[in-house]
Amino acid sequence: MKIALVKQEVYQDLYVCPVTEKDAANILFSSMGRVGPIGLMAELDADFYIVKEEPEFETQIYRKVIPHISKYLYLLKTETLDKIPGQGFKQPGSPYPNGKFAVDCHDIDWSKYDVVISINVSLPTSVVRSYPQTLFAYMIGEANMATGTVHFGYDVTMNQMARGIIAKKCGIVDFPYTFVSSDTLHKVMQKHLGREAENKGIFMEINSTTERPVTKAPAHFQPLIDAGYEIILHKQRIFDNLKSIYDAKYFVKMGGRHIRGNSVAEAVSLGTLAIMNRNEVIHHELIIDECDVKTMDQMLNLINRLEKDTDLYKELLAKQQRVLKELFFDAPIQSLANCLEEKRKNGKAKPYKWYNKIADRFCFFR
Fold first, then answer.
1. Which of 20, 43, 320, 336 lies deepest, with the highest CB count within 10 Å?
2. Cα–Cα distance measured from residue 231 to residue 248, given in angstroms and rounded to the nearest whole number
3. What is residue 17's three-state secondary structure?
4. 141 CB contacts (<8 Å, ≥6 apart)?
5. Position 100 confidence tier, pLDDT thresholds 50, 70, 90
6. So what's the pLDDT on residue 364?
7. pLDDT band, residue 146 (cuts 50/70/90)
8. Is residue 331 part of a domain?
9. Is the model's pLDDT at 366 over the cut of 50?
10. How far lies 89's CA from each of 44, 94, 99, in Å?
């Protein structure tokens, strides 16, 4: 499948580079914040586009996704994320604004792609419906929004879940925001750095504390410190942070708020064993039984044991990576292949009538 990933010039995350950039590391490290679906480019040779903001209702949906900063997002056409009010602590990976690389979506021949994945609703319905042989999917940047049914004339809505459910036809599809395979990020970092990982120290997942930016480990991590383990803290710039996780041996979370678990997928793909309480993670499937700990004492005991048993460490990491590949890569891609087959078998776009338009107007009301 030939795939395109698309975001708007007003989107506050992901990569800031031209479509001509094909090096996965350069794309990844240009991100404003999160890793996102870098596996599309690193593993599947997908193209990445930033498109200009369009005036249609559906392409303005982004204003409802994160309303507290939506009035400032137009600045991303000419400014970097850290220049937006309230975002000054961010350290985007690229020195350029989205707008520098934005292109007009009407100038792109989308028929050359089997699948087009839009972050939020980047392409107007009129464009989507002009290419009946191409599968169009959207993923709302914030999870759990507008995922009950497909809107805006698209074929697929991606719900950011990764449960191993394989879709047989167009509609709702499990597809994680962090789309990576078992060692996608490890390969990217190894090639870019030109060396193997150091494989030492404990990286503390950022949501173990409320401090932003993180400058110290919280008090409840003291037992690990007292045991002589180095606690590695979150870095604001994506390259620095991924390098720290790549070189760490363990990726842990204890306490703090519940997380979706994209960071867990990133750590495992980097080759770092993730240990935490699976009840605090939406993507709890990644926390295998052997790495599911409920207290700091349990965490310390497990790490002590793994430090003495190298083979067990390798066994658990390999097990986590197998789960990651199955749920975060193989199943989502098979779902898209099934949806594409169904759409092409039908041979035309589904009807898009007045009642669909009305439903689309209310899809963000809760």
1. 320
2. 9
3. coil
4. 11, 12, 13, 62, 65, 66, 119, 120
5. very high
6. 63
7. low
8. no
9. no
10. 33, 15, 21
Q: Which residues, at least 6 apart from 47, have a Cβ–Cβ distance to it below 8 Å?
A: 3, 4, 5, 19, 41, 113
- Give backbone dihedrals phi and psi of 261, rounded to 5 degrees, phi first: 110, 10
Place of tokens 């792609």: 113
Q: What tokens appear for 13 in the block?
A: 């995350």
Task: Locate 27 and state its tokens.
Answer: 């794309």
Together in a domain, 272 and 136: no
The three-point CA angle 160-146-331 to 5° equals 30
Q: What is the mean pLDDT of residues 149-178?
A: 96
Q: Please give the residue range of the domain that contains residue 60.
A: 3-158
What is the arithmetic mean of pLDDT over 90-103? 97
Same domain, yes or no: 141 and 195 = no
From residue 15, how far is each of 33, 77, 236, 320, 338 by CA, in Å? 8, 14, 15, 27, 28
Whether the predicted model's global pTM rises above the 0.85 cut:
yes
Residues 123 and 226 in one domain: no
Helix (H) or strand (E) holding 137: strand 135-139
Alpha helices of the chain — where are they, by DSSP H?
A: 24-29, 39-44, 62-65, 67-70, 125-128, 184-193, 222-226, 238-247, 262-269, 296-308, 310-325, 331-346, 354-361
